[in-house]
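Appendix B. Chain record.
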Amino acid sequence: MSDVQETREPVYDNRAQLQQVQEGLLDGEVVYAVYDAIGAGTGFIGITDRRVILQDKSFVGKKVAITSIPYARIISVSVVSDRTWTGGFFSTSTIAVATSEGAHEVAFRGNEKAHHAHNLILWHMVR
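Structure tokens predicted for this chain:
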């Protein structure tokens, strides 16, 4: 798992978001990372050993949804960039998680976080 390491302590940007994910865990489920998302609609992405968790703030009336996507339902994980391939594969801070229902884009606060999230999700998809 080279640069995708299973650590004992999850990586996170915001302790309140980590706690929100931890409160909704299934028995025995392990959190690897919870990253704050930027841009319209998405509050954060949580990555566990069983699923990807997205907080969606785009509902009318200030409603918020927490969406769980099991790895078995993820078709692909992509790096989203408006640059050419010569600009660097991970020179972007946005990924897309695709399911049969559509894609969920997540913009991160930094390229390293996007790279880490992408690799965690991909590793769980192919293992």
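Further analysis of this model is presented in Appendix C.
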